[in-house]
Amino acid sequence: MNATPPRAADRDQIARFVDVLFRYAEDGSYVSLRAFYDDANQVFDIRAHRLTADRSSLIDDACNLVTRAAQSSRPVVFAPPIATLSNDRGATEADLHNGLCLSVECDSQPDVARQRLEHLLGPATVVVASGGDWPDPTTGELQPKVHLHWRLTEPTSDPASHAQLKRCRAMAKDLVGGDATSNPMVHPMRWPGSWHRKSSPRLCRIVTEAENELDLADAEQRLREAWDIFNASRPQSQGGQEEEPKKGEARDSRELVRAITTGSDYHAPIAALAMRYLKGGMTDAQVVLTLQGLMLAVPEAVRDVKDGVVHPLRWLSRYNDIPRAVSTARAEIEADKAKAASDDMFGSARIGGFRLDAMTAGAPPVQEFLLAPLMPLGKVGLIFGAGGIGKSLVALALCLLVAIRGRFGEVALGGFSILGGQVPLEAAGASVFLTLEDDTAEIHRRVAALDPQGQREDAPCFVIPAVDVLSLDPALVVPDGRAAKLTALATDGLDRLLCNIEQLSGREVRLLVLDPAGDFMNADENDATFVKVLMRHLRAVAARHGCTIILVGHVAKGIDVDNPTMRGSSAWIANSRFAYALWAPAPAEAERLAKQIQEPAEGLVCGKLVKANHAGAPIGIAKLFLRQKHTGHLVDVSNRTRQGAVDNQELLKLLVDACAESAAAAMPYSYSGVAGLWTHRADLPEALSSLTKRRLEELGTLALESGALVKARTTWSQGAPKYLDVPDGPLAKGVGEEMFQGSRAEAIAQYRARKAG
Fold first, then answer.
1. From start to end residue, where is composition biased (Basic and acidic residues) (predicted)?
2. Where are the domains of the chain?
3. How far, CA to CA in Å, does 69 sit from each of 34, 75, 334?
4. What distance in Å separates the CA atoms of residue 251 and residue 597, rounded to the nearest whole number?
5. Angle at the Cα of 356 from the Cα atoms of 352 and 357, rounded to 5 degrees
6. What's the rounded Cα separation, in Å, for the pair 275 and 257?
7. pLDDT for 183-235, tens place per residue?
8. Fold of the domain spanning 1-234
9. Mind listing the pLDDT tens digit for each residue in 222-250?
10. Is the peptide bond before 269 cis (omega within 30 degrees of 0)?
């Protein structure tokens, strides 16, 4: 005898269903793929699927779960909500993101119900035979139970439209006596292509399809007119009004009690009454006893009968499940309370966490850098300059440095120095370069020049040339009327890219480069509306992943070297946490500098940090770089411009004078540490601030060894003297002056004003 082939998902049915009803669902929202045991109120499996433009992955995941459910030894129903959710955790009405269709379960008089609703609303977009049958009590004919779905012309996406769709579903249900539990859009419903296994296994299938769609406002008007006529002769609850639907159940409590005691329905009435009794003030134990009493009132002859079919243990399984149903309702009530409290950002449950002392308890976190002291980790910033200046090569070199940091000594790519900054060990990790300008061949040529020793071998540096990936639409922001809208690549793609690279490489992603910035917008880069939306989203991505995001941009026309700006809206720089500008010096200036350092003028590039929000950033300190002929790497030659111009004695005098003035202004330097010369070099004269750490510390040592500077205490310091002052200065003499509370620039300005007065 031939064996029965194993039951499996019908992929064609599922694919057609997904295409029809999830056609307008927003990418980035979630579908809750759910399966439950039919013989008990237990979960078989629940999996959240995040939607992308490619629906095939949703179909794959659905088919996998349907097949597993179909082949389970116990009957399992596959019934995900035909809606999308805002997160991957919950599937309550509070989690609803998109309502997609008006759906009605027609388990009683299905033929009449369908005829009545299609006459009112037009052909259903899809009619699904759910696998069950309804026996006509007059003729004995078995009619397939059906689910009717009308796709909306536009999904619901806010509380008002969600409520409007729920009203429509409730009115449609009332007009045909449908299942009231299907009113909420998050109600689980069988999908075609899955198996109905309450009795003999039957495939749930599509009966008909149509291209008819519903405008929600028009549908509500039609349903309201029909429902008002229908409701005119319907018995009213006390007060003459229908009881407000509660937790997806529109029937009033008397109808729910009647449904239980007559044996016609157990599950939905028990869940709804449990919720209502608990909200009414009854204790959990009282609710359990009350519901068990209602179940005991069901005549034994009808306890296990549903629609004329005997289902063994139907009554007993629901009776035994009452304590769990009550505890679930209680948990939902508490969860709703907790969510309401957490959603209220300024509610009493959360506002205490914003008190300054609570926010700043303990030692402050140490500032970590991608490129010290220019670019912090986990922030969004800019590198911008004129075409051909070398900014993309700088970004590529930085990606490579991050990926190989810690694997070699300080010889790799110039000792991990770039733009005059250092890539520290804390920045070691994976890096991603997404370029919209260079193809694979150009990237190959550039990296071969940058890394002739092949140190990139096995390094987690990922470069994605969009021009060679034809299926990639790189837009992160697009117009939505007059507003800006983030694309699926922005809301989902970047997160998946970073997570997958982290998983593949086993390293945290420390750097993401987007080059060039303007090309990631299908909108006007001069319009602050679009720039702000993009930069705000990128800041959130950077914070989630702890990686720095650098956008590479072009310089504005007619560059002002004193105040260089990026092309496009001023919102680019305003919404970044750091911005570094590169430009070619003017011809006369280039010739002067070239003679001074004895290098070709055409290889010179100027640069400086023009914006930064972190402490100690060397904003405005100009650097001079020399582009290496064969590699394109920018080598910092700033110190060479000062050789001969400022000799050692002059530098020493500048340092001593700066320390003396700072001590007199009650804001002294220390040799090293938090108040150290290197840490606060931005406050020193330019000739000193541009020195290397080693060179600056050599000068400090020389000043101390020669006696030009001494170490002293302040009124606050304890332990050994460490603050720098001249021998006859106030700190050296032990004058107990209170230290200045503010910046060094403010302290010196006030000191000079007192001295002048």
1. 243-253
2. 1-234, 239-348, 369-583, 648-756
3. 10, 8, 32
4. 88
5. 90
6. 14
7. 788 889 999 999 988 777 889 999 999 989 999 888 888 888 888 777 664 44
8. Alpha-Beta Plaits (3.30.70)
9. 888 888 777 664 444 333 333 333 345 67
10. no
